[in-house]
Every structure is written in structure tokens, then in C-alpha cells.
Amino acid sequence: MYQSIKNTFIDIFDQEPLLVYSPGRINLIGEHTDYNGGFVLPAAIDKKMVVAIAENDSQKGRIYSVDFEEEFSFDIMSFSPKNGHWATYVMGVVSQLQQAGYVVKGFDMVFGGDIPVGAGLSSSAALECAVGFALSELFGFEIPKKSLVHYAQKAEHTFAGVQCGIMDQFASAMGKKGYAIRLDCRTLNFDYFPIDLGDYKILLIDTQVKHSLADSAYNKRRLECEEGVRAAQQIQADVRDLRDVSLDLLDQLSIDAVVYDRCKYVIEENQRVLDSCELLGKGDLIGFGKQVYQSHHGLSKLYEVSCEELDFLVDYTKEIPEVLGSRMMGGGFGGCTINIVHQDIIEKLQKDISEAYQKNFNKFPKFYIVSPEDGTGFL
Ligand code: GAF
């Protein structure tokens, strides 16, 4: 893949590029907690967005997307978001760097990769991080990775219009082989948490659907959480995020039932991340698996970001003792479930689930076995 992206670059732009990459991510547990000042446990994976880049002597950013087989060119000094277009993510990062005072000159870029789009593996965060890193290296900005994470997230807010948390960009940039990242999304303090699952593997099952309300529902959930925070501040002034709200305090708030459910889910999920780290630290995979199932229950029934296809996949695994845990992963409304599965049954499980899923939804799911890998870097 890298070689073909490099060759495409040389064919189009007739010069040698710098090659960098940034990976997709999984999240073991801690969904929709990042923008509530809470904890998450993501990891980078072995699926990457690759960017080939070189300077040009124009005032233009000239980009070619291998996956979309499409070119796009924009004036470095004057550009605006292009709704729903892949180039928006690239321009969003350029804009953030410029606002931070970095002088971005004309560049040629080719990008592509093997992160399935719309599968909840954060291909857009990977693109943003790869573009930020590529520009920083090309022009000698020497931007620390944590700042790149910040610019990548802001690019998503301002250009793509999704008020995402910090998790995806952080995991893509900071991942480490063999480890998940135990991240405090309020302070951005983190440590690398060893992931040793013994005979168990992380199996992602891709529903092959992404329901269209995903982005708008995401922003709506954020507003509902903020409503809960405002109500809590009436009683306890030092509350900053839902992370500071206990279930006892939640019970005292005057909020409607929907906001109550959203807040309850987040408060419980935050605790599940902490409990899961403790369980994983003790090697209690069965205990961890239960937390994973509970996480899905909350996401589906209280936070209401699951869908029929995701619920089907999770429910299917519940009767199988070799599956320790299963839940939807990422923002929701489609994408993948993450499953902790004994290696001996993976093949059979894939076959059985494929058949059952096809019968119900008239399409086949896809499967990816993944493990924690390194974050953004050079190729
Ligand atoms: C999406 C967002 F981009 C993340 O910030 C996070 O909120 C996630 O949904 C849900 O946990 O991937």
C-alpha cells in the first residue's frame, strides 16, 4: 500500500515525497465519556492512513485521494470548508496550523489507506493526524504530538462540523504497540496500559451500515449532557463536567427523563472504565467482559446511540461462552462491535454470524482481528 501511494505521488507530481502515516483506533471501553471530561481506554490499530507529501512552489495545496480517485486543489491563503468532501479534513488541519501561527506553504499530497470508512475506526481522525504530522515535518514546525492532537480535533469541530471529543485523535497520534491508552480526557494525563488477553483476541465485526443521523445525534447528545451539567451546577457549583456528578447528585436534579438517562449512562460508563482497568490489571478478563456487555446495554438503552444491526451482533454473542464481552464501538448508529473472543472459535463465530446477519439484514458483515499498534509516525 505504501509503495503504491508513493508511486502514485511520483506519477502525478514527479518528485520524491515524505511518507507518514497515522492509524485508526479501537476503544476497549469508555464511550461518549471523552467530551464529558471522563476516562477512555482506546488503542491505535494496524490499519493506517498514509500521506505522501512534498513542497511545491505555488500557493496551492494540491491533493489526490487514492481511495476516491479524485483530485482537489485549493488556495493556501483563501479556502473554506467543503461540506461532506474528504478535502475538508485536510483544509481543516491547514486552517488550524495557520491560526496557531505556522506558515503553511504550497504542497502536493497523495493519501490513502486501509481504514474502512464509516466503520467507526476513525479514518477521519487518522487523516487529520497524518496531515498535521506531514505538514509539521515537511515545513519543520516541530509541533509536539499532543498539540497535533489538539489541532486535529479542532479541524473536526470547525471544518467537519462534528463536536467530537479528544479520544480518536489522541489514540491515533499517541498509540503504542501492545498497549491501550488510559486517558483522562480532562487533564490529558495518560498512561500506557498493557493489553495481554492471553488466548483471547479482539475481533471487530463491521455492520456495514452507517445511519445518516450519526453526526447530528452526536452533537445532540453533547447538548443533553451539557444540560445535565448546568442543572448539577445549580446544586453543586464546582461541577465542571458530568465526570463530577455522582448518581446521588443526578437523582436530585430537575431534568427531563431523557437527559437523566443520558447523564446516568455517562456517569456509569466513566466508572466502568476505572473498574475495567482494575479488572484487566488483575487479569480478570471475565470481569472485564461483563463491563463490556454493560457498556453496550447503557449505550443502547440509556444513551440510545446503537441501532438494530449493532444490537443484533451483540445479542448474538451473549449465548456463546467463548465470547467474554461485546459492545458497539465509537459514536454509534453503525460501524463495528468490539468483541473479546477465544481464538479457537473465531473462525466458526465468523461463519455463524455471517449467516445469521445475512438472513436478517440481507448483507454480510466484515471482520477484523486487531491488536494495539504504534501511533502516528514515519514510514
Ligand atoms: C466519536 C468521537 F469522535 C469521539 O470523540 C468519541 O466521543 C466517540 O465517538 C464516542 O466515544 O468517535
From TrEMBL:
Which keywords fit this entry according to its UniProt record?
A: ATP-binding, Carbohydrate metabolism, Cytoplasm, Galactose metabolism, Kinase, Magnesium, Metal-binding, Nucleotide-binding, Transferase
Catalytic activity, as annotated: alpha-D-galactose + ATP = alpha-D-galactose 1-phosphate + ADP + H(+)
What sequence ranges are listed for the domain GHMP kinase N-terminal? 89-176
Domain GHMP kinase C-terminal, chain residue ranges per copy: 279-357
Top-level EC class: transferase
InterPro entries the record matches:
Galactokinase, Galactokinase_bac, Galactokinase_CS, GalKase_N, GHMP_kinase_C_dom, GHMP_kinase_C_sf, GHMP_kinase_N_dom, GHMP_knse_ATP-bd_CS
Q: Where is the active site?
A: D168
Q: What does this protein do?
A: Catalyzes the transfer of the gamma-phosphate of ATP to D-galactose to form alpha-D-galactose-1-phosphate (Gal-1-P).
Q: What is this protein called?
A: Galactokinase
